[in-house]
Amino acid sequence: MIFNKKFESMPRAELRDLQLSRLQKMVVFAYENVPAYRKKYDDAGFNPESIRSLDDVRRIPFTEKSDLRDNYPYGFLSVPTSKLMRIHASSGTSGKPTVVCYTKTDMQVWTECCARLASSAGVSKKDLVQVSFGYGLFTGALGMHQGCEKLGAAIIPASSGNTERQIMLMKDLGSTVLVSTPSYALYIGEMIERLGYDIKDFKLRIGLFGSEASTDEMHNEISRRLNIFTNDNYGLSELIGPGVSGECTEKCGMHINEDHFYPELLNSDTLEPVNEGEYGELVLTTLTKTGMPIIRYRTKDITKLDSSICKCGRTTVRMSKLRGRSDDMLVIRGVNVFPSQIESVLLNMVEVGGQYEIVVTRENYMDKLEVIVEVADGSLLTDYEKLNKLREKIKHNLKTVLQLEIAVKLAEPLSLKRYEGKSKRVHDQRNI
Ligand code: DLL
Known about the structure:
Blueprint lengths: L4 H4 L3 H22 L1 H10 L20 H6 L13 E7 L7 E6 H17 L7 E4 L7 H12 L3 E3 L6 H11 L3 E4 L1 H13 L11 E5 L5 H11 L2 E8 L4 E7 L6 E3 L4 E6 L13 E7 L10 E7 L1 E2 L11 E2 L4 E2 L4 E3 L2 E3 L1 H9 L4 E12 L2 E10 L8 H19 L4 E5 L14 E3 L4
Parallel strand pairs: 3-4, 3-5, 5-6, 6-7, 18-21, 19-20
Antiparallel strand pairs: 1-2, 7-8, 8-9, 9-14, 10-11, 11-12, 12-15, 13-14, 16-17, 18-19
Helix pairs in contact: 2-3, 5-6, 8-9, 10-11
């Protein structure tokens, strides 16, 4: 169901007018209320009053993660803390987290954006939604909790971890929707089987998955194990959290909530727009945020855009599943490799399970990429010949897609690490 027909199905010309007037206001508001923007724009000689068309967005300086870090914790705030209603933070791999702040209006927008994506996947007030993201500073759990609650669904705030109990509750309470990372959903699916449950005894029907990259093949595997319709949704703390975009039931890309976020797709090197249908880096601008406006944020996320009208009736532009982050891209002996390409190859093969790890090392100035993958059938591990055949087949399939010789190690089922939140499947040990 379309949660907000007026904005999600607005004729595109009207939507662009709305985006322009919101952008004009946002840029002036940021300049007047956030010293970090004032300095940035003054230094670049950019006049915030000079936006006349949406194309003028390209004259605005970018905002990057480092800007938020350098201005930790409140340097991008546009209101006094007394006007805030919520503060979240993204974990960050090292050092200080990135703090993100919401006013009451921001909370309303965020809740609606999450309600929209849940509704577009088919969630309704009849549903029991088990939220298996970790509750806390992470935006995923509370964001999706609020959105599904707004639809009138009942929330089961299970949080992540304690997987056996999680599954028991899922079955006994009759949860109909699972909210988690795709990795955790896959793990839950495996554990259901391992614990001897029959999926037919569960009432699950929809999975709302996001917060990390996942291929179609991964969704198919989860869908098969949990017997559900899977949905991919995208967001990032700096912009709002979950709710930037989400798939509808047509599953042909994630509809961006364009009345709140203005998307651009640029070549990461030249910073010029790419043609529609080509991969590029997503750059996003908040159009309505009042507590912490974020203008031209370089997400580092690589996707494609499609502005053709979707069968579902929404007119908003759709972003394809992420190919990965530009900083996740591995350059192996001069060849660019996205972990998602490896995932697609592996999960297309019935002989291997859904769990894998990628290890990159450097020996004598040569990069080496090794893929460790669990076999689906453990009995194979005692048959050297069959094992070798499978290893060669995986190597061949990887080479066909990547044009690269990749070492393959086969592992026992359930031997690799499982993830309850975002997975970390790539281990780059090159120290570069
Ligand atoms: O992960 C927000 C979120 C929570 C989105 C729950 C969806 C569901 P961060 O922790 O700040 O915020 O991480 C943001 O995660 O820049 C992407 O690289 C990645 N990401 C998020 N959703 C997807 C997705 C949340 N559907 C970063 N597919 C982003 C691929 C995703 N990557």
